[in-house]
Each structure stands twice: as structure tokens, then as C-alpha cells.
Amino acid sequence: MSLYHSEPGKLIGLIGDEDTCVGFLLGGIGEINKKRERNFFVVNKNTTPSDIEECFRKFLKRTDMDIIMIAQNYADMIRHLIEIQTEPIPTILEIPSKQCPYESAKDSILNRARGMFCPDDNTLY
């Protein structure tokens, strides 16, 4: 088995605003484990960048998560952490939020992937 092979039963982590989290939770991704740890984090007006950073670090350490989805506007607040992630699992996906549309030029993971396929192309899409 490959080191990066996903195992059945792995979770998706989510960091987003209330509307985004509720939508995904209604879709069935919500989970609270035996330690009472959630696989989602609702960001509100009182949430600080350090709160988002702390949650992201916890999600990275969890062995039961294969994907971490984060609203791009919150990813911008912890961009320094996202850019240093080199492991393919957990995969970090930046998603749009109700307040902010998705901008592919900001997505560091997408830009890294583009660089693998088009190393001579320095343009951001």
C-alpha cells in the first residue's frame, strides 16, 4: 500500500463561515469523535487569525483527515501555514465562501500544481 493511500472512513475537515459549514454539515460531512473533537470549525466575527491557525494546525495533526477544506478568505489569513504544506495528505482545498468569490491566482496549492505541469509558465491564472 502506498504511503499516501487514502483509507476508508477518513474525514474531510472544514474551516468556513456559518453558511458554508451548515451546507456541508447538511450534506453529511459532520463528525464529532470520542474525544469530542469536531471536523469543522465555524468562523465568525469574533474569530481571530490565531484561532483559525490553531484549528488548522490541529486538523493537520489528525490522522483521521484526508482533506481540509478552507474558505479562501480565511486561507488568506493563514497563507504562511498553507504554503509550507508539502505532504499530499491531508490535501488542502481552498473553496469560495458566500462573502468572497474564489480567486485561483491566490490558491497556493493550485499554483504549485500548475508549476509541476508547466514549470516554464510564470503566469498566474
TrEMBL record:
PANTHER family: V-TYPE PROTON ATPASE SUBUNIT F, VACUOLAR ATP SYNTHASE SUBUNIT F. It comes from Nicrophorus vespilloides (Boreal carrion beetle). V-ATPase is a heteromultimeric enzyme made up of two complexes: the ATP-hydrolytic V1 complex and the proton translocation V0 complex. The V1 complex consists of three catalytic AB heterodimers that form a heterohexamer, three peripheral stalks each consisting of EG heterodimers, one central rotor including subunits D and F, and the regulatory subunits C and H. The proton translocation complex V0 consists of the proton transport subunit a, a ring of proteolipid subunits c9c'', rotary subunit d, subunits e and f, and the accessory subunits VhaAC45 and ATP6AP2. Keywords: Hydrogen ion transport, Ion transport, Transport. Pfam families: ATP-synt_F. It comes from the Eukaryota. The keyword Magnesium does not apply. The lineage of its organism: Eukaryota, Metazoa, Ecdysozoa, Arthropoda, Hexapoda. This is V-type proton ATPase subunit F. Belongs to the V-ATPase F subunit family. Subunit of the V1 complex of vacuolar(H+)-ATPase (V-ATPase), a multisubunit enzyme composed of a peripheral complex (V1) that hydrolyzes ATP and a membrane integral complex (V0) that translocates protons. V-ATPase is responsible for acidifying and maintaining the pH of intracellular compartments and in some cell types, is targeted to the plasma membrane, where it is responsible for acidifying the extracellular environment.
